[in-house]
Q: What sequence folds into this?
């Protein structure tokens, strides 16, 4: 009897892009990170790409990839975000799959996933097919091979969903043992054995025979171990994880055994800090055990085809004990908010199903004007989503259109396809998972629905929004002021609806605070400046312009004119309208210019109203990231003024404060806010530039300790992390630069003084790479400069937590 172990991680974040901007905007709840995708990448996805193995003294001995030795799947939407925002991590994940094929007999560790985490048993047949097709195509584009297995969202399965996998060549999927109903040997007339209640043997694969005559293999993971990882803190100790897995082998089994677990991949670093290190230790320990072989599902399936057949519970999942109720009704599964109910889930799904079924005939009827087969074109549209270059778009239309389409026909055809893309994104499972309809994830799926409705309104005169909201209104919020789904839509979704007019307003306002080239990209829009005039008088500025705004996804464009008046601080007024004739624009520009030069601001506002109407834009209408950036510029002077005032106060009373402290007298509480503000601000400044004054930092930390000042740990830790990241980039560019190395040593020398931990992931990775490639070369030169560099390099390694050996 041979023993095998496979650890699977399901790495997934829901798509968080603004449906109109095609980008993830700043999310306050993820602070100090920009958004949740960035935060979880830093806490989980990245650490598992380069995980630390420690020696007996807790120092870094090796840095390894967990992905190359485990089974894993990533959500295609989070990988799309990662490829653009953090390409080095995306590349490390892809590279890990390549390396895993060398380790696992040609079988890769990566597993595909249905595209946007739709609950397939609740989807119609068309959506099932497209979700699987898009998931496969996305996988192939990243990993350069066909996937053997596919992860089903929430492991939600029924025979029709498994059929959708099998028909497209997927060999296996992974399910919870609670989804198994009965099993029997693969032989004629064998008796079925009831395995309800997770009594299925998870140490071998099973075959599911499907109604079409096809079949697919299923692996059931070991539930007790997976439960211990997810909820019982098993990852606090890597040795305990190894013990649980190796202890799961049974002498009572007479076949080769596969102990396999599947958990939320975010357990390894996000849910449990250092979970990635526990996983790295476990994988390394198992790999070194001569009696056990580390494997992945594809490799094990090739050498151990199913010997038993299984029937699963239809419409079942791993995170709902009521089938798939969590995504369609108030089944009782929730996040535990007392007094709340999830009755809203049913109306939300009903509203989306109604909308989907209204959009389908519109897509089919209008799509036949442009495509040989509209639904086949939708399946192929993933090629455009992955590469929106003009050349690829031309290729897509050549393959899917029965004739050559003109520019306007292509725009309409792309609008139809985008309408369908958002009609699938609106079914992302996280929309139902949590407790409240006004929650972040649920608002996100309703935004996708709103985008689909907006696109449909351009193509049809039907009032889909009214019908949608009539059903959505039945979804009652647990928060009194949010009332129901209609109110949630009006409060949180409708204000986010984007038009090219709003984009022009954003451009006009932000152009007063940063210089744009003649042609610039603002998220998914291309803005081309046709004319721009700017006038200044003291603190006041007036900008008048004419721009062409193109939505890069559909290539639809409009020319708009704008006028924006800035009168200092946050006082700003902007007007925008779709462009008329050039003489009208010239006349309006002259009127506004004349009024501005006379400093007749009331007349200028009236002129703007005459030209642009009563619709005014302000700083409130900037997109979230730019709003934050502009307000920071405006507030910089205010912050500096506050800092100087507080610094004056703290300096003036410093001796008295020390005297009271020496006498163990109560401090001046009224001075505490000023002291904390100054200390935190000055510590941030130290790490915002490339040169840290170590003595000044130590002095500030001592002052904080004496004054019992509360340090802004999260903000400071993030600022210091960024400081090390910048120095890391400089070291990569100039690895033998002694100045950079000295600055790193100075900063690293402060780490023991800090009362909070710092994420040193990037600089540690850089050090590890230089230690392998650059250090041996420099060390062998044996000249004075090289000796100094080598000494400083080894000192830095010790300060960064590495096991360093000096000759």
A:
């Amino acid at each position: 009897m041979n023993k095998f172990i496979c650890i699977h991680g399901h790495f997934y974040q829901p798509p968080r892009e603004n449906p109109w901007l095609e980008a993830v905007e700043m999310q306050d709840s993820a602070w100090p990170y920009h958004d949740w995708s960035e935060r979880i990448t830093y806490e989980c996805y990245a650490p598992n790409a380069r995980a630390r193995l420690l020696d007996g003294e807790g120092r870094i001995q090796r840095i390894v990839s967990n992905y190359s030795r485990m089974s894993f799947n990533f959500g295609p939407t989070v990988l799309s975000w990662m490829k653009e925002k953090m390409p080095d991590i995306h590349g490390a994940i892809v590279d890990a799959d390549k390396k895993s094929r060398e380790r696992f007999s040609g079988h890769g560790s990566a597993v595909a996933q249905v595209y946007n985490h739709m609950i397939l048993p609740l989807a119609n047949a068309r959506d099932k097919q497209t979700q699987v097709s898009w998931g496969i195509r996305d996988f192939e584009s990243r990993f350069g091979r066909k996937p053997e297995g596919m992860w089903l969202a929430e492991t939600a399965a029924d025979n029709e969903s498994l059929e959708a996998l099998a028909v497209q060549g997927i060999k296996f999927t992974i399910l919870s043992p609670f989804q198994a109903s009965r099993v029997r040997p693969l032989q004629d007339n064998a008796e079925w054995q009831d395995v309800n209640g997770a009594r299925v043997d998870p140490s071998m694969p099973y075959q599911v025979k499907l109604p079409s005559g096809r079949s697919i293999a299923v692996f059931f993971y070991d539930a007790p171990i997976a439960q211990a990882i997810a909820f019982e803190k098993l990852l606090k100790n890597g040795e305990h994880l190894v013990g649980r897995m190796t202890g799961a082998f049974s002498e009572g089994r007479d076949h080769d055994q596969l102990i396999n677990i599947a958990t939320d991949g975010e357990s390894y670093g996000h849910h449990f800090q250092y979970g990635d290190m526990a996983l790295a230790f476990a994988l390394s320990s198992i790999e070194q055990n001569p009696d056990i072989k580390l494997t992945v599902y594809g490799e094990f399936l090739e050498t151990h085809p199913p010997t038993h057949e299984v029937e699963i519970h239809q419409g079942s999942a791993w995170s709902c004990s009521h089938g798939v109720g969590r995504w369609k009704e108030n089944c009782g599964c929730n996040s535990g908010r007392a007094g709340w109910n999830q009755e809203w889930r049913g109306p939300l799904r009903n509203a989306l199903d109604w909308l989907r079924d209204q959009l389908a005939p519109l897509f089919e009827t209008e799509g036949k004007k442009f495509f040989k087969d509209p639904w086949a074109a939708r399946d192929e549209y993933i090629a455009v989503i992955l590469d929106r270059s003009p050349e690829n778009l031309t290729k897509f239309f050549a393959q899917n259109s029965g004739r050559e389409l003109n520019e306007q026909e292509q725009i309409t055809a792309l609008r139809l396809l985008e309408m369908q893309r958002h009609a699938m994104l609106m079914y992302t499972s996280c929309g139902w998972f949590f407790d409240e309809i006004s929650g972040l994830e649920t608002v996100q799926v309703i935004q996708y629905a709103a985008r689909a409705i907006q696109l449909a309104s351009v193509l049809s005169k039907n009032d889909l929004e009214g019908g949608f909201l009539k059903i959505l209104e039945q979804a009652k919020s647990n928060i009194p002021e949010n009332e129901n789904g209609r109110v949630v839509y009006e409060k949180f979704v409708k204000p986010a609806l984007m038009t090219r007019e709003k984009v022009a307003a954003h451009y006009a306002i932000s152009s007063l605070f940063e210089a744009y080239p003649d042609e610039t990209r603002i998220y998914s829009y291309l803005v081309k400046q046709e004319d721009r005039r700017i006038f200044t008088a003291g603190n006041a500025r007036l900008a008048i312009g004419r721009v062409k705004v193109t939505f890069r996804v559909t290539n639809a464009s409009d020319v708009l004119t704008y006028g924006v008046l800035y009168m200092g601080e946050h006082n700003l007024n902007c007007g925008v309208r779709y462009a008329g004739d050039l003489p009208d624009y010239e006349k309006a520009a002259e009127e506004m210019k004349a009024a501005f030069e006379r400093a007749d601001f009331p007349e200028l506002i009236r002129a703007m109203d005459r030209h642009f109407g009563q619709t005014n834009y302000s700083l409130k209408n900037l997109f979230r990231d730019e709003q934050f950036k502009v307000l920071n510029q405006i507030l910089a002077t205010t912050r500096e003024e506050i800092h100087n005032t507080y610094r004056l106060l703290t300096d003036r009373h410093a001796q008295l404060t020390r005297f009271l402290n020496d006498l163990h007298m109560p401090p001046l509480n009224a001075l505490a806010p000023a002291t904390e503000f100054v200390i935190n601000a000055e510590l941030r400044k130290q790490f915002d530039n490339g040169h840290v004054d170590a003595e000044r930092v130590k002095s500030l930390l001592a002052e904080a300790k004496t004054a019992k000042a509360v340090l802004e740990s999260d903000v400071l830790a993030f600022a210091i992390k960024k400081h090390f990241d910048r120095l890391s980039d400089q070291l990569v560019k100039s690895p033998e630069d002694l100045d950079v190395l000295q600055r790193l040593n100075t900063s690293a020398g402060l780490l023991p003084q800090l009362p909070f931990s710092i994420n040193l992931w990037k600089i540690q990775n850089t050090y590890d790479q230089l230690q392998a490639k650059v250090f041996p070369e420099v060390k062998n030169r044996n000249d004075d400069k090289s000796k100094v560099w080598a000494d400083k390099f080894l000192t830095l390694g010790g300060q960064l937590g590495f096991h360093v050996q000096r000759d």
Q: What stands out?
A: The chain has a mean pLDDT of 92. The CA atoms of residues 59 and 802 lie 5 Å apart. DSSP finds 29 helices and 19 strands in the chain. The radius of gyration is 30 Å.
